[in-house]
Design goal:
The chain is of the alpha+beta class. It is 36% helix and 13% strand. The protein is built from six helices and six strands; from the N terminus they run αβαβαβαββαβα. The protein has helices at residues 2-9, 21-24, 46-57, 73-79, 98-107, 124-129; strands at residues 11-12, 38-41, 63-66, 86-88, 95-96, 117-118. It has a four-stranded mixed beta sheet with strand order 3-2-4-5, with helices on both faces. Strand 2 (38-41), helix 3 and strand 3 (63-66) form a beta-alpha-beta unit. Helix 3 packs parallel to helix 5 (98-107). It is globular and about 40 Å long. The two termini are 28 Å apart.
């Protein structure tokens, strides 16, 4: 199940097969920012799992705040609409969209080694569409 989730979302560059997951991946050193980044999530949201998985693979300590499904006020006050996940880190306004959060965390050296994740596709037509 874990390998399926990882392969569906992102591939770590050194992984070629899910069977080599445990031998090919060395967990980076713990990243302990103060204040800790906060991730606002719904417990049933697959996009929230994507962010939590990326933070876990990068070994970033963070706080999880579970939102009720009918909570409109909190996400709206943070990013202007009812959406999850929402990432809040010092020095930046809170923002949403799981892929944007994962890219931000993977490209910022404050969160450990950069370039750990790569996109599943190199298709230029998809990139142009985004």
């Amino acid at each position: 199940m874990f390998a399926l989730v990882v392969s569906a979302l992102f591939i770590v560059e050194s992984w070629s097969l899910s069977a080599t997951l445990s031998t090919s991946f060395a967990k980076p050193p713990k990243v302990d920012l103060r204040p800790k980044p906060i991730v606002y999530v719904y417990d049933h949201c697959p996009f929230c799992v994507r962010v939590r998985l990326a933070l876990g693979l990068k070994n970033v300590e963070h706080d999880i705040r579970f939102m009720a499904n009918d909570d409109v006020d909190l996400p709206t006050s943070l990013v202007g609409k009812k959406i999850a996940p929402i990432f809040e880190v010092s020095g930046r306004e809170p923002f949403a969209e799981s892929l944007d959060i994962v890219r931000y965390v993977d490209n910022d050296p404050r969160f450990g080694p950069t370039g750990l994740f790569k996109e599943m596709s190199d298709r230029s037509d998809l990139k142009a569409w985004q």
